[in-house]
Amino acid sequence: MEVFIARYSRWRLGLLFALALGFVALGFFLMFETGDGGGIVIGGLSTGFFGLCALLIGRKAFDTRVQLRIDRQGVFTRGWSDGVIGWDGISEVSTWHHRGQRFIILSLEDRAVHPPRPGLAAWTAGINRRLTGGDVPIALTGMDRGFDEAFAAIEHFRKAAREGSSASPGP
Description:
The chain has helices at residues 10-33, 37-60, 120-132, 147-166, and strands at residues 4-6, 68-71, 74-77, 85-86, 90-98, 101-108, 136-139. By secondary structure, the chain is α+β, with helices and mostly antiparallel strands. The longest helix is centred in the first third of the chain and has 24 residues, at 10-33. The chain is elongated and about 65 Å long.
């Protein structure tokens, strides 16, 4: 199997961007057309939240770097850290599903060896662990490769790493 590499997909991000702008428009409608306090509050929150989402999605559309790499050395996921998590550092690989979204979840042998990057990943790490039971969530939303391809690559390279480490040296 070849090295698995995933980058952001501009057309998929474009769809997410359009969806976010649709919710911004809905928020404006609620703020200015309903005329009641609840509509103003909900519309304002919707406009602010989905406006921020649109900005973040727009920024990602210009990021051409590798976001996920799976190979014989391990897993690199830019959302978690700038380093590769070696196969010997991964104790378990599982999946988690939420509202139609599928995530690959890596459980680490020692989180201190592979800490999350400062910022959002570090801030949400504890919440993710409680929700998913693992340490490193990998989502392929907005990427140019799919969940099934990524999971197959993890299974392939993880198995190869286990077989390589358990093989006894020759004479």
